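Morning!

This is the sequence you dropped in the shared folder:
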Amino acid sequence: MFPISCPHCNESLSFNNDRSYVCQNNHNFDLSKGGYINLLPVNKKKSKSPGDNDMMVKARRDFLEQGFYDPLMKEIKSVIENELNFSTKELSILDSGCGEGYYSDNALSSLNGLKSTIIGTDISKYAVKHAAKKYKNNFYFVSSIYNLPVKTDSIDLILSVFSPNDSKEFGRILIENGYLIIVSPGENHMKQLAELIYDSFRPHEYNIIEKIELPFSHISTHRKTFKIEINDSGMLQNLLKMTPYYWNTSKQAQTKIENCEAISITCDFNITVFQTV
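The structure's back. C-alpha coordinates below.
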Protein backbone atom coordinates (compact mmCIF):
# COMPACT_ATOMS: atom_id res chain seq x y z
CA MET A 1 0.00 0.00 0.00
CA PHE A 2 1.35 3.42 -0.96
CA PRO A 3 1.57 6.19 1.70
CA ILE A 4 -0.98 8.41 -0.04
CA SER A 5 -3.89 10.23 1.57
CA CYS A 6 -7.14 11.84 0.53
CA PRO A 7 -6.71 15.50 -0.52
CA HIS A 8 -10.15 16.31 0.93
CA CYS A 9 -9.98 14.78 4.42
CA ASN A 10 -6.38 13.51 4.80
CA GLU A 11 -7.49 9.96 5.54
CA SER A 12 -5.49 7.09 4.04
CA LEU A 13 -6.31 5.97 0.53
CA SER A 14 -6.61 2.26 -0.24
CA PHE A 15 -7.00 0.47 -3.56
CA ASN A 16 -10.43 -1.16 -3.79
CA ASN A 17 -9.21 -3.92 -6.15
CA ASP A 18 -11.30 -2.47 -8.94
CA ARG A 19 -10.03 0.78 -10.45
CA SER A 20 -10.28 3.25 -7.60
CA TYR A 21 -8.51 4.51 -4.49
CA VAL A 22 -10.97 5.21 -1.67
CA CYS A 23 -10.74 6.68 1.84
CA GLN A 24 -12.92 5.77 4.83
CA ASN A 25 -15.10 8.81 4.09
CA ASN A 26 -15.83 7.37 0.64
CA HIS A 27 -13.95 9.96 -1.35
CA ASN A 28 -13.17 8.13 -4.56
CA PHE A 29 -10.29 8.59 -7.04
CA ASP A 30 -10.28 6.55 -10.22
CA LEU A 31 -7.13 4.97 -11.52
CA SER A 32 -6.61 6.12 -15.10
CA LYS A 33 -5.96 3.72 -17.95
CA GLY A 34 -2.39 4.95 -17.80
CA GLY A 35 -2.04 3.79 -14.19
CA TYR A 36 -2.02 7.08 -12.27
CA ILE A 37 -4.52 8.99 -10.14
CA ASN A 38 -5.36 12.68 -9.98
CA LEU A 39 -5.27 14.00 -6.40
CA LEU A 40 -5.39 17.69 -7.29
CA PRO A 41 -8.79 19.14 -6.31
CA VAL A 42 -10.31 21.57 -8.78
CA ASN A 43 -10.33 24.34 -6.18
CA LYS A 44 -6.55 24.01 -5.80
CA LYS A 45 -5.86 24.64 -9.47
CA LYS A 46 -4.73 28.08 -10.59
CA SER A 47 -5.38 27.24 -14.24
CA LYS A 48 -7.20 24.60 -16.26
CA SER A 49 -4.01 22.61 -16.93
CA PRO A 50 -1.29 23.74 -14.51
CA GLY A 51 2.35 22.79 -14.95
CA ASP A 52 4.25 21.74 -18.05
CA ASN A 53 2.25 21.08 -21.20
CA ASP A 54 2.51 17.98 -23.35
CA MET A 55 5.00 19.55 -25.74
CA MET A 56 7.42 20.43 -22.93
CA VAL A 57 7.09 16.98 -21.34
CA LYS A 58 7.82 15.19 -24.62
CA ALA A 59 10.81 17.45 -25.29
CA ARG A 60 12.26 16.69 -21.85
CA ARG A 61 11.80 12.97 -22.31
CA ASP A 62 13.41 13.00 -25.75
CA PHE A 63 16.40 14.89 -24.34
CA LEU A 64 16.89 12.95 -21.10
CA GLU A 65 16.59 9.54 -22.72
CA GLN A 66 19.70 10.33 -24.76
CA GLY A 67 21.65 9.99 -21.50
CA PHE A 68 22.89 13.58 -21.35
CA TYR A 69 22.20 13.78 -17.61
CA ASP A 70 23.57 10.34 -16.70
CA PRO A 71 26.48 11.87 -14.73
CA LEU A 72 23.93 13.69 -12.56
CA MET A 73 21.95 10.48 -12.01
CA LYS A 74 25.11 8.66 -10.90
CA GLU A 75 26.05 11.48 -8.53
CA ILE A 76 22.62 11.50 -6.86
CA LYS A 77 22.80 7.72 -6.43
CA SER A 78 26.29 7.99 -4.96
CA VAL A 79 25.13 10.57 -2.41
CA ILE A 80 22.20 8.38 -1.35
CA GLU A 81 24.22 5.17 -1.12
CA ASN A 82 27.39 6.54 0.47
CA GLU A 83 26.38 9.55 2.56
CA LEU A 84 22.90 9.01 3.94
CA ASN A 85 22.31 6.81 6.99
CA PHE A 86 18.86 5.25 6.99
CA SER A 87 17.34 3.36 9.92
CA THR A 88 15.87 0.80 7.50
CA LYS A 89 16.89 -0.90 4.27
CA GLU A 90 13.37 -0.54 2.87
CA LEU A 91 12.76 3.06 1.87
CA SER A 92 9.67 5.02 0.94
CA ILE A 93 10.83 7.71 -1.48
CA LEU A 94 8.99 10.66 -2.99
CA ASP A 95 10.08 12.26 -6.26
CA SER A 96 8.59 15.74 -5.83
CA GLY A 97 7.96 17.52 -9.11
CA CYS A 98 8.69 14.23 -10.84
CA GLY A 99 8.09 15.40 -14.40
CA GLU A 100 7.97 12.52 -16.86
CA GLY A 101 9.59 10.17 -14.31
CA TYR A 102 13.15 9.97 -15.60
CA TYR A 103 14.74 11.01 -12.30
CA SER A 104 12.53 8.67 -10.28
CA ASP A 105 13.66 5.63 -12.17
CA ASN A 106 17.26 6.52 -12.95
CA ALA A 107 18.35 8.13 -9.69
CA LEU A 108 16.16 6.45 -7.07
CA SER A 109 15.71 2.83 -8.17
CA SER A 110 18.17 -0.08 -7.89
CA LEU A 111 20.05 1.48 -4.97
CA ASN A 112 22.84 -0.74 -3.61
CA GLY A 113 21.81 -2.42 -0.38
CA LEU A 114 18.45 -0.65 -0.32
CA LYS A 115 14.95 -1.51 -1.46
CA SER A 116 12.95 1.51 -2.53
CA THR A 117 9.22 2.05 -2.99
CA ILE A 118 9.03 5.11 -5.21
CA ILE A 119 6.08 7.46 -5.53
CA GLY A 120 6.18 10.55 -7.69
CA THR A 121 3.99 13.60 -8.05
CA ASP A 122 3.74 16.58 -10.35
CA ILE A 123 1.13 19.27 -10.88
CA SER A 124 1.22 18.56 -14.62
CA LYS A 125 -1.19 15.80 -15.63
CA TYR A 126 0.74 15.42 -18.88
CA ALA A 127 3.98 14.74 -17.00
CA VAL A 128 2.37 12.24 -14.64
CA LYS A 129 0.66 10.48 -17.55
CA HIS A 130 4.01 9.97 -19.30
CA ALA A 131 5.71 8.86 -16.06
CA ALA A 132 3.08 6.27 -15.18
CA LYS A 133 2.97 4.84 -18.69
CA LYS A 134 6.72 4.20 -18.88
CA TYR A 135 7.87 3.55 -15.31
CA LYS A 136 5.35 0.99 -14.12
CA ASN A 137 7.38 -0.09 -11.07
CA ASN A 138 6.73 3.32 -9.50
CA PHE A 139 3.45 4.98 -8.53
CA TYR A 140 2.56 8.45 -9.82
CA PHE A 141 -0.17 10.95 -9.00
CA VAL A 142 -1.12 14.52 -9.84
CA SER A 143 -0.97 16.97 -6.93
CA SER A 144 0.46 20.23 -5.66
CA ILE A 145 3.63 20.09 -3.55
CA TYR A 146 2.09 22.77 -1.34
CA ASN A 147 -0.71 20.39 -0.32
CA LEU A 148 0.76 16.91 -0.66
CA PRO A 149 -1.71 14.01 -0.40
CA VAL A 150 0.91 11.98 1.43
CA LYS A 151 0.69 10.54 4.94
CA THR A 152 2.44 12.34 7.79
CA ASP A 153 5.76 10.76 8.87
CA SER A 154 5.70 8.23 6.04
CA ILE A 155 8.60 9.13 3.72
CA ASP A 156 12.30 8.38 4.25
CA LEU A 157 13.69 10.46 1.39
CA ILE A 158 12.44 13.24 -0.89
CA LEU A 159 14.15 14.15 -4.16
CA SER A 160 13.37 17.51 -5.77
CA VAL A 161 15.05 18.30 -9.09
CA PHE A 162 14.51 21.82 -10.46
CA SER A 163 11.14 21.93 -8.73
CA PRO A 164 9.39 24.17 -6.17
CA ASN A 165 9.94 23.26 -2.52
CA ASP A 166 7.90 23.64 0.64
CA SER A 167 9.75 23.13 3.93
CA LYS A 168 6.56 22.76 5.97
CA GLU A 169 4.97 20.08 3.79
CA PHE A 170 8.23 18.22 3.24
CA GLY A 171 8.91 18.24 6.97
CA ARG A 172 5.42 16.93 7.68
CA ILE A 173 5.63 13.88 5.45
CA LEU A 174 9.24 12.92 6.26
CA ILE A 175 10.01 10.58 9.12
CA GLU A 176 12.24 11.73 11.97
CA ASN A 177 15.78 12.13 10.60
CA GLY A 178 14.43 11.84 7.06
CA TYR A 179 16.35 13.31 4.15
CA LEU A 180 15.64 15.90 1.48
CA ILE A 181 17.83 16.20 -1.62
CA ILE A 182 17.39 19.31 -3.74
CA VAL A 183 19.04 19.63 -7.16
CA SER A 184 19.34 23.23 -8.36
CA PRO A 185 21.29 25.04 -11.09
CA GLY A 186 24.97 25.61 -10.47
CA GLU A 187 26.54 28.96 -11.26
CA ASN A 188 27.30 28.18 -14.92
CA HIS A 189 24.40 25.89 -15.77
CA MET A 190 23.46 26.14 -19.48
CA LYS A 191 25.85 29.09 -19.91
CA GLN A 192 26.35 28.57 -23.64
CA LEU A 193 22.64 28.16 -24.31
CA ALA A 194 21.91 31.45 -22.56
CA GLU A 195 24.67 33.17 -24.52
CA LEU A 196 23.06 31.93 -27.72
CA ILE A 197 19.76 33.54 -26.72
CA TYR A 198 20.80 36.70 -24.89
CA ASP A 199 23.56 39.26 -25.24
CA SER A 200 25.11 38.19 -21.94
CA PHE A 201 24.90 35.42 -19.34
CA ARG A 202 24.01 36.08 -15.72
CA PRO A 203 25.33 33.33 -13.41
CA HIS A 204 22.76 31.46 -11.35
CA GLU A 205 22.53 32.28 -7.66
CA TYR A 206 22.79 29.58 -5.01
CA ASN A 207 20.29 30.36 -2.26
CA ILE A 208 18.67 27.00 -1.48
CA ILE A 209 20.11 26.78 2.03
CA GLU A 210 18.52 30.12 2.96
CA LYS A 211 15.17 29.07 1.48
CA ILE A 212 14.82 25.72 3.26
CA GLU A 213 13.63 26.40 6.79
CA LEU A 214 12.88 24.34 9.88
CA PRO A 215 12.46 21.44 10.47
CA PHE A 216 15.53 20.99 8.23
CA SER A 217 19.23 21.34 8.81
CA HIS A 218 21.80 21.52 6.01
CA ILE A 219 24.00 18.42 5.81
CA SER A 220 26.12 18.91 2.69
CA THR A 221 26.32 20.33 -0.81
CA HIS A 222 27.83 18.53 -3.79
CA ARG A 223 28.57 20.22 -7.10
CA LYS A 224 28.46 18.21 -10.30
CA THR A 225 29.71 19.87 -13.48
CA PHE A 226 30.18 18.35 -16.91
CA LYS A 227 29.79 19.23 -20.57
CA ILE A 228 27.46 17.77 -23.15
CA GLU A 229 27.91 17.84 -26.90
CA ILE A 230 24.78 18.48 -28.94
CA ASN A 231 25.12 17.93 -32.67
CA ASP A 232 21.53 18.28 -33.72
CA SER A 233 19.40 21.44 -33.79
CA GLY A 234 16.27 19.40 -32.95
CA MET A 235 17.87 18.11 -29.74
CA LEU A 236 18.94 21.65 -28.91
CA GLN A 237 15.30 22.69 -29.33
CA ASN A 238 14.31 19.96 -26.87
CA LEU A 239 16.82 21.26 -24.36
CA LEU A 240 15.53 24.81 -24.78
CA LYS A 241 11.96 23.65 -24.07
CA MET A 242 13.17 22.20 -20.74
CA THR A 243 14.38 25.59 -19.54
CA PRO A 244 12.75 28.89 -18.53
CA TYR A 245 14.62 30.45 -21.46
CA TYR A 246 12.04 28.96 -23.80
CA TRP A 247 9.40 31.52 -22.86
CA ASN A 248 11.70 34.48 -23.46
CA THR A 249 13.37 33.44 -26.70
CA SER A 250 13.10 36.04 -29.46
CA LYS A 251 12.54 35.11 -33.10
CA GLN A 252 16.10 36.11 -33.82
CA ALA A 253 17.44 33.83 -31.09
CA GLN A 254 15.14 31.02 -32.24
CA THR A 255 16.69 31.30 -35.69
CA LYS A 256 20.17 31.02 -34.13
CA ILE A 257 19.14 27.81 -32.41
CA GLU A 258 17.61 26.36 -35.55
CA ASN A 259 20.86 27.05 -37.42
CA CYS A 260 23.12 25.70 -34.67
CA GLU A 261 24.39 22.30 -35.78
CA ALA A 262 26.87 21.70 -32.96
CA ILE A 263 27.41 23.19 -29.51
CA SER A 264 29.15 22.26 -26.25
CA ILE A 265 27.05 23.15 -23.20
CA THR A 266 28.01 23.26 -19.54
CA CYS A 267 25.74 21.32 -17.17
CA ASP A 268 26.30 22.59 -13.65
CA PHE A 269 24.30 21.30 -10.69
CA ASN A 270 24.19 21.83 -6.93
CA ILE A 271 23.03 18.75 -5.01
CA THR A 272 22.06 19.96 -1.53
CA VAL A 273 21.26 17.50 1.26
CA PHE A 274 19.06 18.35 4.24
CA GLN A 275 17.83 16.29 7.19
CA THR A 276 14.88 16.79 9.49
CA VAL A 277 15.78 17.78 13.04
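Headline: The first helix runs from residue 54 to 64.

More detail when I'm at my desk.
O.
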